[in-house]
Design a protein that fits this description.
single chain, alpha+beta, Pdz3 Domain, 2-enoyl-CoA Hydratase, Chain A, domain 1, four-stranded antiparallel β-sheet, 7 helices, 17 strands, globular
């Protein structure tokens, strides 16, 4: 059985189903799936009302007729991925342990060797969400909205976005070649990897206006936002702009904390099943910017 956790990360057979946050926290979903294909590999788990006989038959036929050695673990991950994708929800995705590790790394901001660009799915394709300021990606001319077609001459057509990210990352000082699609034309760019640490939040003050640029909803988003909010108060800021452009998402808890800078225990998110509200999440923290618009 899948159990919902504090940060909306769902534990599932040593893997996670990560539910993306879209347009702040609106539309967040955390589907509970009560069965997996694990029984066909001898793992005892509740199958609920799902009939897995056809899956078992497919597996037996594969074992009987496949010419070569099968990677059982890879089959499990592939079957799990197919089960989730068959739900047809573009905001729900399956991640195997390696992909989950990359996801956790991206939320922490401690990327290591990389090109300094946030990557996500747009229209089902791995896309440059934004290059970080003064990053190798930005210096190489890579722009937000460009679609990644190949990494080191390998097509990414069948890759999950986290596999694309892991292939782009590598040892500091080495190069990676990207084939990008922009305005119906492809072009290649070679980027030298550097040590990348991406801030979750950046700030700027323009007169009496403070700007919070929230790059992702990660582990340090709330603490950084609170730090900059305190600076705004100390410097006499009267209004605050929250810039969420090109934010690829993250955890619900960090979004709750960010909203909590303005709202005191107000509703941040509701989760519905049809017309029924099954869960309500409230803002957290102290509303130190509550008097600012």
């Amino acid at each position: 059985m899948v159990k919902g956790e504090n940060k909306q990360r769902l534990g599932w057979f040593l893997t996670l189903v990560i539910v993306a946050i879209v347009s702040f926290v609106a539309g967040t979903r955390s589907e509970k799936i009560f069965a997996t294909v694990a029984p066909i590999f001898g793992v005892r788990m509740s199958s609920g009302s799902i009939d897995l006989s056809s899956v078992q038959e497919t597996y037996r036929n594969l074992v009987a007729n496949y010419d070569g050695k099968l990677d059982t673990q890879k089959l499990i991950y592939g079957a799990n991925r197919g089960l989730v994708e068959a739900a047809g929800d573009s905001h729900t995705a399956y991640m195997d342990p390696d992909e989950t590790k990359e996801f956790e790394k991206s939320l922490s901001g401690k990327i290591g060797g990389g090109i300094g660009a946030e990557i996500g799915l747009r229209n089902g394709k791995p896309t440059i969400i934004k290059p970080l300021n003064d990053s190798p990606a930005q210096k190489s001319g890579i722009k937000a909205g460009e679609v990644i077609v190949k990494v080191n001459d390998e097509s990414v057509a069948d890759w999950a976005v986290d596999k694309v990210v892991s292939k782009i990352r590598g040892e500091v000082g080495t190069s990676v070649k990207l084939t990008l699609l922009s305005e119906n034309r492809t072009h290649e760019v070679s980027v030298t990897r550097q040590n990348i640490t991406a801030p979750a939040v950046e700030s700027e003050i323009d007169g009496e206006i403070g700007i919070l640029k929230v790059n992702r909803f990660g582990d340090d988003t709330v603490s950084l936002a609170k730090k900059y909010a305190t600076e705004f108060i100390e410097k006499g800021v009267k209004k605050v702009i929250v810039d969420l452009r090109n934010n690829p998402g993250g955890t619900v808890s960090s979004a709750q904390g960010l909203l909590g800078l303005w709202l005191d225990r107000q509703v941040a998110m509701t989760e519905r099943r049809g017309s029924e509200i099954v869960k309500t999440a409230h803002t957290t923290g102290s509303p130190i910017l509550g008097d600012m618009k």
